[in-house]
Amino acid sequence: MGRAHEVRAAAMAKTAAMKSKLYSRYGKELYMAAKAGVPDPEMNLGLKRKIAEAKANQVPADVIKRAIEKAKGGTGENYDECRYEGFGPGAATIIIDCLTDNTNRTVSAVKTCFNKAHCKLGVAGCVSHGYHTVGLFSFPYEDEEGMLDALVMAEVNVTDLEVEDGIMTVYTEATDFHKAQTAITEIVGEDVQFDVCEITMLPDEYVKIEDPEEKELWNRLVTLLNEVDDVQKIYHNVEE
Fold it and tell me: Which residues have C-beta within 8 Å of that of residue 220, sequence separation ≥ 6?
């Protein structure tokens, strides 16, 4: 157990810039979910689930509403998913997921980030083999037995569950993410405040960057990537 650093790595910083990035990310995902079916959560299960996830991550109601209304408007806007993998200083690895309406622009922007940080962009699959995809939840709650019973009853495959300083962290199979979110909300209450509520990728092993120059380059790479509008999520194996 004792993997609290994984949660810290997965959680986004509580800054205005990061919140804006989070809202933009969910705006695109909600738009795509609405476009993939009927733009009505009662008739579109994928959209309903994405709305629940957005709310759990404190995305404002007006951001959710705008994304759905945009889809209702029938605009020709469309986004493609793309993933980039690469290497940072030392044994650092990184995965970048993007949603873009122009893949040439996105790959150019990502390459520029790697070049400016003196890091190496790799080929598909060069890094992701060392990661596993999980449903990750972190929220204030302490009854481990009660939560585990509720998740088992909901047919959720729990891979790990721990409590540290009054905060419960639950790891599930990625395919059980929405079932787990529903079960947690039912037992904790609709007003549960998630610190983390997402499907994420966790590395099989973490590394620590000790060298100051390497740490500076690593921080530069992550900062530059976060400034790229098309970047949705960043996963890495560097222990914070």
Answer: 116, 117
What is the pairing mode between strands 158-164 and 120-121?
unpaired
Domain of residue 34 covers 4-72
Distance CA 40, CA 217 (A): 45
Give the CATH number of the domain where residue 116 resides. Answer: 3.30.70.980
Eight-state DSSP code of residue 176: G
* DSSP secondary structure letters along 65-98: HHHHHHHHTT-----EEEEEEEE-STT-EEEEEE
Q: What is the pLDDT of residues 172-222, one digit of tens each?
A: 999 999 999 999 999 999 889 998 899 999 999 999 999 999 999 999 999
Give the whole-angstrom CA distance, residue 43 versus residue 124: 36
**Length of the chain, in residues:** 240
Q: What is the pTM of this model?
A: 0.85
Same domain flag for 220 and 104: yes
Whole-number Å distance between alpha carbons of 31 and 36:
9
Q: How many CB atoms lie within 10 A of CB 8?
A: 13
CA 92, 21, 61 angle in degrees (round to 5)? Answer: 140
Instruction: Read off φ and ψ for residue 85, nearest 5 degrees.
Output: -130, 145
Domain count, the chain: 3
